[in-house]
Design a protein that fits this description.
about 30% strand, GntR family transcriptional regulator (chains A, B), DNA binding (chains A, B), globular, homodimer, alpha+beta, Chorismate lyase, transcription (chains A, B), DNA-binding
Chain lengths: ~270, ~270
DNA sequence: AAGTGGTCTAGACCACGAT
DNA sequence: TCGTGGTCTAGACCACTTT
């Protein structure tokens, strides 16, 4: 990234009167003479990076509007079209949300549309049901090696371990174990979790400034262990859907590791391939 | 769709000398005066529809290049930018594939990149392994009511039923049952299937002109029935991943219904949420 | 009426691949 | 060298929302 927030477009102060705009050459010079093997980065992608940086450092909060395209264009000293293309990509990645006539907004987990992208369990018949969660555990511990590895922590770093049971219509259907980096979730307690109503990622976002953007999942069918079977009120050995999820925030930094066991007799995991 | 293939851009033959191009008004007039409640459809989306029609009727075959942006622009009597935006969306939906310097190509299941979007089973360690399939059945029958419903067929229409076992490293790991509309798959026999090497969707595409674009899946954990357990060489009741898939071709027409049972002791289903 | 994002055009130039 | 897609700009106008 050769364009810095301080001097957004480090370009030669060319005369604006120039008939043929040296557009692409500006991008090339801004990106510096590309070293052999260095990837060419178009202007709009650099602008995109700057916007992500601003999102990351919380310059605009989830739910808020970001500056208009023309504002950003003048701030970065590029044309509106270039800003537009940067925002287009960010909107396609669901980091931003465009609303014609109103502005462009930072996506938030407090909206259903965002929430259902990360909540894939659906009742076989009928509409989504409100889930209610009972917390079994919420404690701090040194990160187990596997957790440290996937969350990119050092061996001795602390993590928060959460265990909970989710029920649909008062029927227990999900067991979840969650690991979060302790440093980013100071003050997270069982009470905070219990008293909060709404999506968990919403809590992370508003209370701890950590926004989940993307997640990778590994899905398997497993037999219920005795303890899990008891919590879900099924026979030991009953088939359960196991989902291991690693969630990422801006710039692909991992911030959550989650293992869920799902009873799928009346619910299924929906997915779309394309 | 008010622009027809015959008269692509049914616009008033305005003088090209006009300084201020009546671009947007053209789109509006092309779309007709929108009835109250009728959605406004921008020009590039109408162009996109025309391109999809051409793809659908096989004007350009999978793997082939479509005409250049300038060619399409002059064919449709719009600017290159408008064609570009239409193609951008089609590329984002994986119907087309852009290659700088070479052209824009119709996506094909004979490419790995496309194939792995529909093949989500991955070994826990190591790289993807070639699967080999044994066909248990391939016969024609009247569509069962559930199949007829999801494939949008009439009650008495014929379907092809295929049953097969997939093995990784000679270890049986998947049982699949597939239903296809008989009318679109005339001449599909067990022999044709057995002698064909490569992805099944590739066969559908080149032999029957049916291109899979998108699929919806419902995923569950189930206990292995006796017959399935025997095929997979596991104990009855063993947990299996069950995936029900409905695949769609152009214009969202359903063309395949598939039910798979997966042994996930050494493999998992990978997914990315965003 | 003013401000925002959305569409459309036209033209210049760059990066890439084939010739 | 040429043709392809890719980037960038500038300007006009449309659609939607709020004032």
């Amino acid at each position: 990234m050769s364009i810095t927030p301080a001097t957004p477009a480090a370009r030669p102060a060319s005369e604006p009167a120039t008939a043929a705009p040296p557009a692409a050459s500006v991008a090339a010079s801004a990106a510096g003479t590309p070293a052999p093997g260095a990837a060419f980065s178009p202007l709009y992608r650099q602008i995109k990076g700057l916007i992500v940086q601003s999102l990351d450092r919380g310059e605009w909060k989830p739910g808020e509007a970001i500056p208009s395209e023309l504002d950003l264009a003048s701030r970065f000293k590029v044309s509106q079209g270039t800003v537009r293309k940067a925002i287009d990509e960010l909107a396609a990645e669901n980091l931003l949300l465009r609303r014609q006539g109103k502005g462009t907004f930072v996506a938030t987990h407090h909206e259903d549309r965002v929430r259902f992208r990360f909540l894939r369990m659906t009742p076989d018949d009928g509409e989504p049901v409100q889930s209610d969660s009972r917390f079994l555990e919420c404690r701090r511990m040194r990160a187990p090696s596997e957790v440290a590895r996937t969350l990119d922590l050092r061996g001795g770093d602390s993590v928060v371990q959460i265990r909970r049971v989710l029920s649909f219509d008062s029927v227990p259907a999900v067991i979840e174990e969650i690991f979060l980096p302790g440093a980013q979730f100071r003050g997270l307690t069982a009470e905070r979790l219990a008293e909060y109503t709404g999506p968990m990622y919403g809590l992370f976002e508003t209370e701890f400034g950590v926004r989940m953007i993307r997640a990778d999942e590994k899905i398997r069918a497993v037999a219920a262990a005795d303890s899990d079977a008891a919590l879900l009120k099924v026979a030991a050995g009953a088939p359960l859907l196991q989902i291991e999820r690693v969630s990422f925030t801006y710039e692909d930094r991992p911030v959550e590791m989650r293992r869920g066991l799902y009873l799928t007799t009346h619910y299924h995991y929906r997915n779309s391939l394309s």
